[in-house]
Amino acid sequence: MQESMLFQHLKEPHSRLYFEQTCYRLTGAVEVGKLIDAWNAVAEANEMLRTVFRWQGLKKPVQVILKNPALTFKEIDLSQLSPGAGQQQLDKIKQEDRQNRLDLCSRPFRVIFCKMAENRYEMIVSNHHIIYDGWSNAIILRELAEAYHRLYLGKEWLKPVKTRYKEYLKWQQQQDKIKQTLYWKNFFKWFYRQDLFFC
To answer: Do 143 and 169 reside in the same domain of the chain?
Structure first.
């Protein structure tokens, strides 16, 4: 799937296909420094947030997990604007973010943090679908909340133990492809017979 997404990205470099933008409204006092530290901790715990892709001059594209990437975190203060003007500016920021293509070679993930008013914020998280899917949003957000809470209290966040991506790839390459194909063919035959498929 990642290869097909990369192919599509290279075929249509200015397309917004597979661009994902999620917006979160935060209320209460937020310590931005702690939030950045929490994002860095979550990126350390999740290899996909440290992933870039290389293909130029290579026979086959490769996925690279960086050890210490620089988090792309932009902070914008809109709190001096009237509520209406602040919302207009926020909408413009979101639109510009959607227009700003993600660079799979260096930054396929970024965060924009907007202060709307005292104790009210909007956090815009943008990523290319090639690094993680919608199911992962909830995991990342939960870990971010846990990390921020621990750091806010002056405690250490113990990052969860996860299987490394290269271990998953090794396991995947060892699987019997014929057996897998047969399993999925049979599964979908059963699935359609159960009349469970709907759009």
So the answer is: no
pTM: 0.83
Q: Is 174 found in the same domain as 158? A: no
Residue 17 — left, alpha, or beta (φ > 0 → left; ψ -120 to 50 → alpha)? beta
Clarify whether residues 41 and 127 are in a common domain. Answer: yes
Give dist(CA 126, CA 22) in Å, integer.
6
Looking at residue 75, which CATH number applies to its domain? 3.30.559.10
pLDDT of the chain along its 199 residues, tens only?
788 888 888 888 777 888 999 999 999 999 999 999 999 999 999 999 999 999 999 999 999 999 887 789 999 999 999 999 999 999 999 999 999 988 899 889 999 999 999 999 999 999 999 998 888 999 999 999 999 999 999 999 998 988 887 888 788 888 888 888 898 888 888 777 766 555 4
